[in-house]
């Protein structure tokens, strides 16, 4: 279909197979899949796709965003689309690199049908997508990098003391930061324990875990 040569980078085999099958049924003939950063780069060099569809969380090793930058270094014109459960890539790591210029961002839960994915792939084919960065950023959350880090540490089960040690700050500063985070997330004032549970639950929702 319209000279689309696609590499899918997705570590969940069922998801990868479903995407590849659905896109082939839609008319895309040239498709390869990879389930890790290393295999993605190996296939990228030999297959030479003009569009890549990547998940961001690849479990082991570099993220999909890291992989996309490595791909762009080899081919500055390759189109990049991220298909992810994450409401914001900083949920993986508050220091995660920015997405490559012109890349597109789709949330799995928000995609209506396979045609939407196809149209997005076509929009980034053969170079930088004709879309503003703001259109990509509109999906992201109005939280600071520090708030992402604290939310993730709470979800991992760290106490306030442990968070303070990790972030090299005082317990009081951590408590204040958690209070600001809860307010930004719309979580009402309550006991510390229940507030932490609600923050952890919100993190799970935003990462597509529940």
- Top-tier CATH class of the largest domain: Alpha Beta
CATH topology of the largest domain: Rossmann fold
Summarize the helix and strand pattern as letters: EHEHEHEEHHHHHH
The count of β-strands is 5
Low-confidence stretches: 128-139
- Average of per-residue pLDDT values: 88
Structure write-up:
The chain is built from nine helices and five strands; from the N terminus they run βαβαβαββαααααα. The chain is of the alpha/beta class and about 210 residues long. The protein folds into two domains: about 5-135, 3-Layer(aba) Sandwich (Rossmann fold), CATH 3.40.50.2300; about 145-205, Arc Repressor Mutant, subunit A (Orthogonal Bundle). It has a five-stranded parallel sheet with strand order 2-1-3-4-5, with helices on both faces. β1, α1 and β2 (about 30-35) form a beta-alpha-beta unit. The longest helix is centred in the C-terminal third of the chain and has 15 residues, at about 190-205. The chain is elongated and about 55 Å long.
Keywords:
210 residues, alpha/beta, Rossmann fold, Arc Repressor Mutant, subunit A, 2 domains, five-stranded parallel sheet, 9 helices, 47% helix
Question: Helices and strands in order, then pairings?
Answer:
Blueprint: E1 5-9, H1 13-25, E2 30-34, H2 37-47, E3 51-54, H3 64-74, E4 79-84, E5 104-107, H4 114-124, H5 133-137, H6 145-155, H7 160-167, H8 171-184, H9 192-206
Parallel strand pairs: 1-2, 1-3, 3-4, 4-5
Helix pairs in contact: 2-3, 6-9, 7-8
Offer a quick outline of the entry.
With 210 residues, this protein is of the alpha/beta class.
């Amino acid at each position: 279909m319209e000279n689309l040569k696609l590499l899918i980078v997705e570590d969940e085999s069922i998801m990868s197979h479903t995407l590849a099958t659905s896109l082939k049924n839609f008319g895309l003939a040239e498709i390869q899949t990879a389930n890790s950063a290393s295999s993605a780069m190996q296939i990228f060099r030999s297959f030479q796709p003009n569009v890549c569809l990547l998940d961001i969380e690849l479990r082991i090793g570099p993220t999909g965003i890291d992989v996309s930058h490595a791909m762009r270094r080899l081919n500055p014109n390759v189109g990049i689309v991220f298909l992810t459960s994450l409401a914001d890539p900083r949920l993986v790591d508050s220091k995660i690199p920015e997405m490559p210029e012109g890349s597109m961002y789709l949330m799995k839960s928000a995609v209506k049908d396979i045609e939407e994915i196809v149209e997005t792939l076509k929009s980034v084919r053969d170079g930088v997508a004709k879309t503003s960065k703001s259109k990509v950023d509109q999906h992201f959350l109005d939280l600071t990098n520090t708030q992402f880090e604290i939310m993730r540490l709470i979800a991992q089960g760290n106490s306030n003391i442990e968070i303070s040690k990790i972030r090299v700050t005082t317990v009081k500063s951590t408590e204040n930061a958690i209070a600001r985070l809860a307010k930004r997330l719309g979580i009402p004032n309550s006991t510390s324990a229940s507030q932490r549970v609600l923050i952890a639950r919100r993190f799970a929702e935003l990462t597509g875990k529940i």
